[in-house]
Design goal:
One of its GO terms (molecular function) is DNA binding. The chain is mainly α and about 110 residues long. The protein is built from 5 helices and 2 strands; from the N terminus they run ααααββα.
Amino acid sequence: MTSTPHPITADLARAARALAQVSRHDIAEHTGLEEELVRDLEHGRRTITPQLSDLLYRALEEFGVEFLPVDEAAGVGYGVRQKFNPRTVKRLENWENEGGPAGDDDI
């Protein structure tokens, strides 16, 4: 497993999940972790190991957030933002709702 660009901290995990507007259950299901463990990690009650950091990082990115690294030169700390702006999100939602049920692709 490759390492993420920077480790996920408890506050960053909480902020990213809130920004993605997904539940702890969604994160747990996506990562294969227990929901209680996700809660404990977000509240700093459990240590976020490099392996857990990788799992959370990838899951949260798939849910539409982008992690921002520390920029020492600019004096900016790490952070998180939405991967897409609101206009793009609206277009993606429209595309997902277009059409009807998927049909058979048998040729």
